[in-house]
Amino acid sequence: MDWKKKAPSDLQAKKTYKNQVYNWCPKHNMWTIHKAEDCKLPDHKNEANKGDEEITKNKWQLANALVAMQDEDDSTVELLLCQWLIRLISVMITRY
User: Whole-prediction pTM value?
Assistant: First the structure.
């Protein structure tokens, strides 16, 4: 889904895809179903100061993959699981 990586000119803009409203998230640098102010991921600049950059990069890749999975699934159970995994990864990123 290439459209999810194209930043809008208005960062407050919304998109609708398959009856789902998407918001631009600057922390994920992609369209997500959560609003930017509700994003649980820490800022990249703060995370980079905590240690090994390769581990940080891997955590961000995993978190972004989970968001992408969440946005593509229509199943409520899968959506809840992905939301839970995103919260778990968010906690891991902030603690380590």
Answer: 0.48
